[in-house]
Amino acid sequence: MSQPLRLGIAGLGTVGIGVVRIIRQHAAMLKARTGREIVISAVCARDPDKDRGVSLSSYAWETDATALATRDDVDVFVELIGGHEGIAKDAVEAALAAGKDVVTANKALLAIHGQALAEAAEAAGRALRYEAAVAGGIPVIKALTEGLAGNDITRVVGVMNGSCNYILTRMESAGLSYEEVFAEADGLGYLEADPQLDVGGIDAAHKLAILSSIAFGTRVDFDGIALEGIDRVSIEDIHAAADMDYKIKLLGVAQKTGRGLEQRMQPCLVPDTSPLGQLDGGTNMVLLEGDAVGQIVLRGPGAGEGPTASAVLADICDIARGLRGPVFGVPADTLTASVPASAQLPAPYYLRMSLEDKPGALARIAKVLGEAGVSIDRMRQYGHEDTSAPVLIVTHKTTPAALNEALGAMEGTGVLSGTPVALRIEDV
Amino acid sequence: MSQPLRLGIAGLGTVGIGVVRIIRQHAAMLKARTGREIVISAVCARDPDKDRGVSLSSYAWETDATALATRDDVDVFVELIGGHEGIAKDAVEAALAAGKDVVTANKALLAIHGQALAEAAEAAGRALRYEAAVAGGIPVIKALTEGLAGNDITRVVGVMNGSCNYILTRMESAGLSYEEVFAEADGLGYLEADPQLDVGGIDAAHKLAILSSIAFGTRVDFDGIALEGIDRVSIEDIHAAADMDYKIKLLGVAQKTGRGLEQRMQPCLVPDTSPLGQLDGGTNMVLLEGDAVGQIVLRGPGAGEGPTASAVLADICDIARGLRGPVFGVPADTLTASVPASAQLPAPYYLRMSLEDKPGALARIAKVLGEAGVSIDRMRQYGHEDTSAPVLIVTHKTTPAALNEALGAMEGTGVLSGTPVALRIEDV
Q: Which residue numbers delimit the ACT domain (chains A, B) (predicted)?
């Protein structure tokens, strides 16, 4: 009979307690599935006396995560503290140095220090696994690393921050402004302590950087992501996009191009009938595209006790079964430096602007677009009661450079009222 | 350096050639991802002289699959012949007996002989893997066996036959009858040589039986599936369902109930706004539900050279990495006998009937429903030009027994024109 797999769990917040619950409740099931008993040796959290709704008295307590990570009776260090510096990083490094396997839900840690940690893990012959770090309960790391191992991955697209998707869908359904829904979500505790992590796209970009590394065999490159949050998405754009059969999503996209690796996190339009367009509320969705498989879509809860604990358990079970593949799908020392794309691939764009109510205003706009090489696919001018006319344009595929040239030239026409909004339309 | 992993591929149809192509085209990538070279030692197909569009001259040829399966220079036998008896079964058994790992895309073989084969594989300490057997390119076996290993699985729901989904969506979009679209699909070569495998739900039921075994730790039990194909789905029902905001799908459902394991493959209604309701054409979709994760939805191509070969490669890569878990997620000798549910769980039902144009006809129907304990959620009576009036009813949750009692009693009312249609509405 195999020896039990002994865990040390650092961080007893929602997810940590979720992991403890599953291990207690499903001990027999986990043993049947992995061939080994999975037990908790020790835990660690800031306040040992807090009532967490589950009895922890049978586990050794540590107040120091590094002390926990290096205990002799711990085989796997489960890091659920969070943050890319300080305690979490120190403890993960100490665990790997002490020959422990590591399971973490820490996207920031992986996105920023993934390369060094992967090298440390592989040098030590240990696993460093992080299914819970990306898209919560969706087994997307496994799908990409193992399920699509026979594919040259061509693109990864995802909605990977449930709070942003909640805000955008709530704006549409309730007809509220970004500021109103932001305040509402913040009041309900839906946002991180630093809300910029959510609405600024940082959290989602951490996840994208991780997926991108696996997909393209490149060193994780968070800084290479063109990053824009959802704070400039207005209810007017949501309504106008809907009018043209689109939804606005905070979309992470990573793809190989002839000009380097394109990684971006930005509000984009997607067709309202596409799986991404139909994704409402806090749910996550990731599209994985490969040369053999075509497109796979994975959808599920991106956060919460159960879903995140489910992902942590998947990693623990894999380790119990003896699975110890390279951290990012290929050996870390063979990952190539990511060369950020010099420009984004051409795409159609959505433009919304107000034109002064002057004869020939629209013709002027059409002319500068044409001169910049931007051709118009669809255009709508709306009835209006004041002196400016709302106009929506969907362009054919164009380069961001041509679009920017056109936007610059528009300013010189003297017919614009205010600044035009331009949003990329993603082909999904 | 690890030794190369040597394959013997039996069956060089679309999928077999797809596998050969990937291995040739992506040799370096596969080696980087698995740490081993993956090579083809030998192949086997009926006609060695046929032009398959890819050069096979560097591989040894066998005319007998069992001879291929037992060659000394084969580590993994890749069975892409198909069929649950005869050559495929003999060769898989021979491969396992000879200590080879086996990868197969053969859903019928697993659904019918899965238990014996799993026992043989595990006794020999070999892998028997079949990602390609269920839902084509979607890594659903991996998601269920590994990705959700920390979950008590509560339900599996899927659209797993692309041809049926194509027929149903094409009926709706073109307004054609089942017979017309069937003939069209058959003419286009979309259906199996024996179309009953598709439209009778057998192919999809094979897949459901496999998923059900993994999900619930039961011996694969194809015969325990309540099976009904799509041939009684009429264009009238598709239109009427759409009128009530539903789509009709050939849905496979497996769930544990207090009365045993419920496994069924039948046309069901699903809300048209649900991911399943929005699934058009030949795409597959599987919903996996677990106590921790909630619901995960996986969507992707269910057939075709690339997607199926992608799934075969995932298995090959796992074997190259040394992954050899139990065939159905837990050791085969611990799988319990499935106890088929004595009755299906209660559900809402859709009823469509024509009533004689007599006073009080609808009241009679409502009365017998009420007497059987079936309550009405929504009801619509349509205008009509002949002597019978079309009526649609959506019931509240009811047991199939109560529904059948009501349907029986309706016959006695004398107000029915023709036989009512009843379809289950699945909560997805």
A: 350-428
Structural domain contains residue B344: no
Question: Total structural domains in chain B?
Answer: 3
pLDDT, chain B, mean: 95
Q: Name residues 23-42 of chain B within 8 A of A (Cβ).
A: 26, 29-30, 32-35
CATH number, position A418: 3.30.70.260
Give the model confidence (pLDDT) of A240-295 as tens digits.
999 999 999 999 999 999 889 999 999 999 999 999 999 999 999 999 999 999 99
Place of tokens 């063979």: A334
**Candidate from A33, A138, A325 with C-beta closest to B149:** A33
Tell me, what's the ipTM?
Answer: 0.96
In a domain, A290, yes or no: yes
Convert A118-153 to b/e letters by CB count within 10 Å (16 or more is b): bbbbbebebbbbbbbbbbbbbbbbbbbbbbbbbbbb
Question: Does A407 map to a domain?
Answer: yes
Interatomic CA distance for residues A359 and B404, integer angstroms: 70
pLDDT tens digits for B74-130?
A: 999 999 999 999 999 999 999 999 999 999 999 999 999 999 999 999 999 999 999
Asked if A16 has any chain B CB less than 8 Å from its own CB, the reply is no
Domain that holds residue A367: 349-425
From the list A144, A294, A111, A297, the residue with the least C-alpha distance to A216 is: A144
Q: Which of A114-123, B268-277, B297-306, B376-385 is predicted least confidently?
A: B376-385
Count CB neighbours of B192 within 10 A: 16
DSSP, res B388: E
Q: Please tell me whether residues A195 and A274 are part of one structural domain.
A: yes
Q: Identify whether residues A17 and A118 lie together within a single domain.
A: yes
Q: What are phi and psi of A194, to 5 degrees?
A: -100, 100
Asked if the structure places residue A263 within a domain, the reply is yes
Q: Are A223 and A272 contained in the same domain?
A: yes
Determine the pLDDT at residue A343: 84
Residue A29 C-alpha, separation from nearest chain B C-alpha, in angstroms: 8
